[in-house]
Design a protein that fits this description.
Layout lengths: L7 H7 L3 H5 L7 H4 L10 E5 L5 H8 L4 E6 L2 H10 L5 E5 L12 E7 L8 H11 E12 L1 H4 L7 E2 L5 E3 L9 E7 L2 E7 L2 H10 L2 E8 L4 H4 L5 H4 L4 E8 L1
Parallel strand pairs: 1-2, 1-4, 2-3, 4-5
Antiparallel strand pairs: 5-11, 6-7, 8-9, 10-11
Helix pairs in contact: 6-8
Length: about 240
Amino acid sequence: MYNEYDNEKFFEEYGKMARSRGGLSAAGEWHLLKPLFPPLEGKTVLDLGCGYGWHCAYAVEQGAEKVLGLDLSRKMIEEAERRNPDDKIRYRVCGMEDYEYPESAWDCAVSNLALHYIENLDGVFKKVYKTLKPGGVFIFNIEHPVFTSGVGQDWAYDDDGRPKYWPVDDYFKPGERVTHFLGCEVIKQHHTLTQILMGLLNSGFELKAVREVEPPEEMMDIPGMRDELRRPMMLLVKAVKR
């Protein structure tokens, strides 16, 4: 799978983002994602697309005994090892489609802003279900279908450069979307809400929570951030292996 995160320019620009500099507290979804985590004391946690390892470190802070962070990007894994090292965390360069998913091995699986790069989402859901222990929890944050189906994934602007509305096209046509992000061409995969939720149910999961992200008001007050953050960007889901 193509991996723009090992592109030097892209990786440098990614490092300038608020979430890259400030960690979980600087991520607009964290106030909604954090409450979805189950108690992690003595548990094992798998992070699919771990990035800088923020969620791996959080799992250890909450008492997790073993954490594995996977990311396709070597640069991301190197940064995770530098920023969030811990004896209980192992980082590994590996795409989530390539991981072996041992049966009934993990108590919790988490994936933050990575699944929208995956074409065969159903296949990943089935593998995650297999690798979770009975009662295991799968929490993920994926780009919202209204966002991935957005025209250019950006606002339509008036003559003065102010956002007018969020245009959507080809919503019911899943598949590849090419957009520009952080000055680079980025390839994503669009999945409808039906595909995401029914994919989980058909894999055997029980849905426990579905949240559409609205950033906290204090983030809206940051100069220049209101138009950025009020986009329909993210969908949070918590599912349990029955």
